[in-house]
Write a structure and sequence with these properties.
With about 450 residues, the chain is an all-alpha fold. It has helices at about 20-40, 40-50, 55-60, 65-85, 90-115, 130-160, 165-195, 210-225, 250-285, 305-325, 335-355, 355-365, 370-380, 385-395, 400-415, 420-440, and strands at about 120-125, 125-130, 290, 295. The protein is built from 16 helices and 4 strands. α1 (about 20-40) packs across α7 (about 165-195), α9 packs antiparallel against α12 (about 355-365) and α11 (about 335-355) runs antiparallel to α12. It has a single domain (about 15-445), classed as MFS general substrate transporter like domains (Growth Hormone, Chain: A).
Length: about 450
């Protein structure tokens, strides 16, 4: 399967260079790392900021992920507008600036949590520190940065003319590097930020030094990217003043693809963000967490070790799966998506029945290639509509906010996380429908 087969590079010397792909892939690594760092801070923030949150503790905790992905919903289309107006390189630089400001808000939140911990607002029976609200604003800015950068990365990688590859392969390779960031993030939070302390002994001030170092690193990346040449790609965006004759929503396979990615990111993020909260619930109830029934994981009552282990293995499944699927040059994206959604549905049902978290962790391996499959199926044949489609597509990542928050609310209402994983089953089945039927392209939806 090929996307935009008539693409022309700006010059012959740049046509088959891999350097531009390396640049955007490295920045995508940073996005994956900080996205997962944000969600892995849910449990530590619950114990440092939300210990007086009352009956809404899980709901407030999942607001960390909600505000992050709210940035996708509100600003995903902003990224596509910037791509059309300024090009790919200038847009990715703007995304990095948002990231720097988001990290600055994290630092301010950590400082306020240490110096002004008594400043709180009462919501229902919950007492919420203002420092937590500042952190939520940082999450929103970080989500905005991630959305803008992804608007650049996805169409750029999918449309870049690299001999011997197809779009889903290139996307799988790039997202595999992204998964290096998501896989390393949980242990960064546990071992580097909080020095391996048990969760009841951590302090919010421990965020200051690591995040100051990260912010300095992102500033350096911005300076380097500004000096490098990131060539544009023809026929993937509109020219200045050019009007597109059709609405992007008139392409059925794209519109249904947006819904598919909404449900995909919803369940992907919900598992990664909430599996550790489910683990803490099981531990509090005395439910043993074993390694496939053989070795009990002894981590103390509320140690961050299990938090890091479960999340690392879940996101590590993405890394392994994307690396393996990058070799599937003869297996269509539609077939890959159908097989993985069926298997993920089975694992989710087994998790609910057995309360064995390792089946839930294993879904990461299956989720690994779904993004690339859905994206490549959705933009196939769109040509000049590609950059606009990418912005709308990225906005659908807001599903990560919706389902994470819904699941947290259901956990508060039900008094357990166990039955909330039915949401995962529903999402997988809807993606299966897209693989089998929704991704079929009507003849009138192919743009020449």
């Amino acid at each position: 399967m090929q996307v935009n087969s008539n693409i022309k590079q700006p010059s012959t010397g740049q046509q088959k260079r891999i350097t531009p792909l390396v640049i955007v892939t490295f920045i995508y690594f940073i996005v994956g790392f900080l996205t997962t760092v944000n969600e892995q801070l849910q449990a530590p923030l619950q114990f440092t900021f939300l210990h007086n949150a009352g009956s809404l503790k899980n709901t407030f905790t999942t607001l960390v992920s909600f505000f992050f992905f709210l940035g996708y919903l509100i600003n995903g289309t902003l990224g596509s507008k910037w791509v059309n107006k300024f090009g790919y390189q200038k847009t990715i630089l703007r995304g990095l600036i948002f990231m720097i400001f988001g990290l600055a808000m994290y630092l301010l939140s950590a400082w306020m949590g240490s110096a002004a911990a008594d400043l709180q607002v009462k919501i229902a029976d919950a007492h919420i520190p203002y420092a937590f609200l500042v952190f939520l604003s940082g999450s929103y800015l970080m989500g905005t940065a991630a959305a803008i950068i992804q608007v650049v990365v996805n169409p750029y990688v999918a449309s870049y003319d690299l001999a011997g590859t197809q779009p889903v392969q290139r996307l799988n390779i790039t997202t595999a590097i992204n998964s290096l960031g998501t896989t390393s993030a949980p242990f960064f939070v546990t071992a580097v930020v909080f020095h391996g302390l048990s969760i009841e002994n951590i302090h919010i001030s421990q965020l200051i030094l690591p995040f100051f170092a990260i912010m300095g690193s992102v500033v350096l990346v911005w300076l380097l990217t500004r000096r490098l040449q990131l060539p544009d790609i023809a026929h993937t965006r509109t020219e200045n003043g050019e009007k597109l004759p059709r609405s992007i929503w008139s392409f059925r396979h794209f519109a249904l693809g947006v819904l598919a990615i909404f449900f995909y990111v919803g369940t992907e993020v919900a598992i990664g963000a909430n599996i550790n909260l489910y683990a803490f619930e099981l531990m509090e109830k005395g439910h043993p967490i074993t390694f496939f029934g053989k070795t009990d994981i002894i981590v103390g009552n509320m140690d961050l070790g299990i938090h890091a282990l479960l999340s690392t293995l879940y996101w590590g499944g993405f890394l392994v799966g994307r690396f393996v699927s990058s070799f599937f040059s003869h297996i269509s994206a539609r077939t890959q998506l159908a097989v993985t959604t069926i298997m993920a549905t089975i694992l989710a049902v087994i998790t609910i029945i057995t309360q064995n978290l390792w089946f839930l962790v294993a879904i990461g391996l299956l989720h690994s290639s779904m993004w690339s499959c859905i994206y490549s199926l959705s933009i196939k044949g769109l040509n000049k509509y590609t950059s606009k489609a990418s912005g709308v597509f990225i906005s659908a990542v807001f599903g990560g906010a919706v389902f994470t928050l819904i699941q947290g609310g259901l956990a508060d209402i039900m008094g357990t996380w166990r039955w909330t994983w039915i949401l995962t089953v529903v999402c997988e089945l809807l993606m299966l429908y897209y693989a089998l039927y929704g991704s079929r392209i009507r003849e009138k939806d192919i743009v020449n």
